[in-house]
Design goal:
428 residues; alpha/beta; FAD/NAD(P)-binding domain; 9-stranded mixed beta sheet
Length: 428
Amino acid sequence: MLLENWLYTGTLNIKTPYCPPLKTDIKTDCLVIGGGFAGLHAALHLVDEGRQVVLLEKRICGGSSSGRSAGFLTPESEEDIKQLIDSLGKEEAKIKHDIPVIGVKLIVDTIKKNKFDCDLRKQDSLYLSIKKSHDKFIEDEAETRKEMKLPYELYNEHQLKKIHPGKGYRMGLKYPGSYGVNSFAYTQEMKNLLIKKGVRIYEDTEVHKIDKNTAITHLGSAKANNIIVCIDKMKSEFNEEVSKNYYHIQSFLTISEPMSEDEMSSMFPKEEMMCWNTKLFYIHYRPVQGNRLILGGSSLLSSYHKQHHNSPSVINTFIKEIKDKFPQVSNLRFTNYWMGLIDVTKDFTPIVDYDKDNESIQYVLGCAGLPFAAFCGDHAAKRITKKTKQDLGKHLGMHREFLVPNWLQSILGKRISFGLSHLRELLK
């Protein structure tokens, strides 16, 4: 397999202009730092509201986590609805549940309105039980969706075979409202749209720090009345206090060669779906452009590794698993693999919050999932333009309660602190 992000090749039909680095000192009304889904959506809302906008990106738009994603646009968080209700109660659970729902709609509406070419696919979600003790996860989630009046279909093992005949799957929960997308192609289409609307974009422009209301880069600076920071892998030198609030987990993706119609129908005889199972470190997959299968997952040992773990050993495990479950594709080759460090908080919920000393600066951090990123960037921008009065501080505030507080994190270290917090969240 080739160690290369295959999604980049899906954008060869999308031409974007070169956006040179910032090499001077400029001023603007609104500055967005970061060109992933969050930053691009923040810039889009601001420019649509008539604001003067500058966007600074350290590489290229979509060049980090956003452009390495499997493209799952699912209206769910890492926590099941039952988990949300158990920990928050119905009212607050509904508010938190709606965040990715709104995020999905925001992305899909943007694609349709602007006729983006980014392999948008309507693909219902299918949550799969892999052993008897996991059936209760599926049953509880179905019961909760019924209680919340959310659409779903529950499949027993016999019924499941008709829509997804993999070996060893015992039960499935299918629900609508999800889509697949080529995430890197989307960022390129967004870049073109923003330039057309008048946003000044500077790529290859890393912001080293913010001094009051001025972002300092290697060759220049940008002073703004309002700043939204949507960067990932924040260095402590940028802001030591803020950088403590999120870390990363590492996941792996691979893409297959084009599948025959028989191979594709052996996995999806009725319709395309995006699938994942009940494992703690779950496998996930869906069909993409060119009749290919994109497949992803992670492992306990590699998830919290400080740097990229480049070996294909992790993804080879998932390739073997998918071929064991679907012997009809046992000869299918996987051509590319790549990895990404996905930013997360200690409860998997993003941060959208003001700087404690300067409310003209907002941070959008730890958006594990494209719908979360789109919503959070848009939400931060709406707070500037006064288009929202919704107070989401309880869910998205930087200083909400976590299992491991920062004082203990300073003793345990980031990796252990985030690992313990995530284990608690996943085992709720």
